[in-house]
Amino acid sequence: MNLSRSLKKIAPALLAILTLTGCMSLRERSLSKAEQGDPTAQAIIGSMYMTGEESNINYKDAYYWLRKSAAQGNCIALYYMGMIYEYGLGEVTPDRVKAKRFYQMAFPTIHKQAKDGDIRYINILAEMYHYGRGTDLNQKASVNLFKYCAQKSYTQATASLGVIRFTGNGIAQDTGKAKNLLLRASEEGDPRAEFFLSEVYYGEEKNVNAFNLLQASSRKGYPPAMYKMAVKFESGSEVKADPSKARALFMAAANAGYAPSQLRVAEYYPDRGNKLIWVKRASERSYVPAMLAFAELVKSGIDTNPAKIMILYQLALKLKPGDRNVIKKVVELDNTTGLYFPIKFCWEDIDGGENLLLSDSDIYRVIRGYKAGIKSGSSEIFKKSLAGNPLPFYMNNDWFLLYQNRLPQLWSSSIFKAVEKTESKNAGFWLGYGISAGLAGQGGSQAFAAYNVKKLAEPIIKTAEGKMLSDLAALLKANSLILLGRSDDAYNFLFTHGRLNFNSSPYMINFVNNWCGPLLKNKNKLSVASGIEKIRLGEYSFPVTQKFFDLQYDTVVGEKPLINEPAVQLDIKAAK
Asked: Measured between alpha carbons, how far is 44 from 67 in angstroms, rounded to an integer?
């Protein structure tokens, strides 16, 4: 019999035998099943694209398969979909609320499968415990689970344990043990392990070994490795300078959702529009240098928005508490705007750059229309936008822009009216509303705001924030009394309240100077009552009374008449 003909006859049978006996790779076995719609196979293929197991990392392809599998309820797919949304991998915008939902849906089944002894699920459970994904943080349990998986030669767990040992995240830092673990995982081709092992080798000045590992990791699509290789091609360090290769690698890492690369890619664009797109993407991934760059772009744009800039600075401070550079920027901006407290408390429970989406309002279109004389049209657009989704106008603190551009204060109050049901438990809501009421000359509305700020301060009065709110409530109340024509009562009330807890704080002084113009009527009395040095107080001003929506009485309060007419006493008998 002809040998080649015989081989052709037995090839299909041999292929089947190889498949059944496991000689084909897991990827090869899973791909055909995934294409036929099998959710488990789809999850395996998707997770391989996520981690670089038997393939290069490709978040776009990972999302394609994981989304299909997650739609059928597969817990592995749900878990990795959570990671995609948590970090904004690939083209996905970060969304930690959605990520949390995916993790929580995945956890019960992951936990059950792990208890049944499946190594893949045990490794995922370890990750969930270690980073608090869908369950409470439990790094002691996670390390034990990682160790168990590593002892069973599960590469991803070995790599994770190596990274944890190298960074000291949840376990004592030990570069020696980290090196051994990362070496084992690198020998299996894990791109994350290769990158971190290269970091170990660079620390040991074994630059040749380090560079080779970095290059291997970069070729497999690990974003931090691509970024670092791009820097080397750009600078000519350890490799011949090649700007085109550097740009290609920066772009690849940026498209994978790696924030440092996204900020770097922004520099390639001379036009503000594209630059803004990339800087914003990096900011949404909570990258502080990008947030500060975003603030500078906003500052230099046609539509300068101090509120947006302050939001960016305060989010950056949450990520880097105590950063002197950011604090300096906050104080400088607050000196001219007084926005620190309103935005601090408005965004008190919100962090993460992805939440910048919450403040993307269309306010400048409204303002431009109004200033161009299209007042009724602008009003109509504003009302429709508020009815559709008022939250961005509130989160962006657009009351400030409306005031700054001399639009009616009634418009500002309508923002607070639109979000009252959902946001009135937030101190920032009442601070913004109280300031707006004061700018409209509505002392009664401002007094109501002061009452609500004080009420929110009471349960936490022993904390720094509780004392801060108490001070702010007292200032709003005293200012409202001046607006109501009760100057003596105002200073007496403030004196009785006691010296402000934060009378030397630049933020508190800026709040007084920017938003309590009527209270500055008698600086001597104000200084004695509040404890703020007289020399640091600004100039007295009194607002023109405007229409405003009073939330206490659920109605629009009007302008004061130009002449206070005396009450007419009717003599009924004489009339007869």
From this structure: 12
Radius of gyration over every alpha carbon of the chain, rounded to an integer in angstroms: 31
Task: Read off the pTM.
Answer: 0.87
Range of the domain at 105: 19-137
**Which amino acid is present at 91?**
E
- Does residue 500 sit in helix, strand or coil? coil
Cβ neighbours of 195 (radius 10 Å): 25
Q: Return the sign of the alpha-carbon dihedral for residues 169, 170, 171, 177.
A: negative
Give the span between the Cα atoms of 264 and 247, in whole angstroms. Answer: 9
Backbone angles phi, psi at 360, to 5 degrees: -90, 80
Asked if residue 525 is part of any domain, the answer here is no
Say if 554 falls within a structural domain: no
**125 contacts 110 by C-beta, under 8 angstroms:** yes
Number of domain units in the chain: 1
d(CA 442, CA 484): 8
**pLDDT one digit per residue (tens) for the chain, 576 residues:** 343 443 344 444 433 433 444 456 777 787 888 888 999 999 999 999 999 988 899 999 999 999 999 999 999 999 999 999 999 999 999 999 999 999 999 999 999 999 999 999 999 999 999 999 999 999 999 999 999 999 999 999 999 999 999 999 988 999 999 999 999 999 999 999 999 999 999 999 999 999 999 999 999 999 999 999 999 999 999 999 999 999 999 999 999 999 999 999 999 999 999 999 999 999 999 999 999 999 999 998 888 999 999 999 999 999 999 999 999 999 999 999 999 999 999 999 998 888 888 888 889 999 999 999 999 999 999 999 999 999 999 999 999 999 999 999 999 999 999 999 999 999 999 999 999 999 999 999 999 999 999 999 999 999 999 999 999 999 999 999 999 999 999 999 999 988 999 999 999 999 999 999 999 999 999 999 999 999 999 999 999 999 999 999 999 998 654 333 333 343 434 333
Give one DSSP letter per residue of 348-407, joined into a string: TT--SGGGGGGG---HHHHHHHHHTT-HHHHHHHHHHHHHH--HHHHHTTHHHHHHHTT-
Domain assignment present for residue 114? The answer is yes
Which ranges in 204-303 belong to alpha helices (H)? 207-219, 223-235, 243-255, 259-266, 272-284, 288-300
Contact 501, 472 (CB under 8 A): no
- 259-266 and 272-284 helices cross at what angle (nearest 10)? 170
Residue 270 lies in a domain: no
CATH number of the domain to which 124 belongs: 1.25.40.10
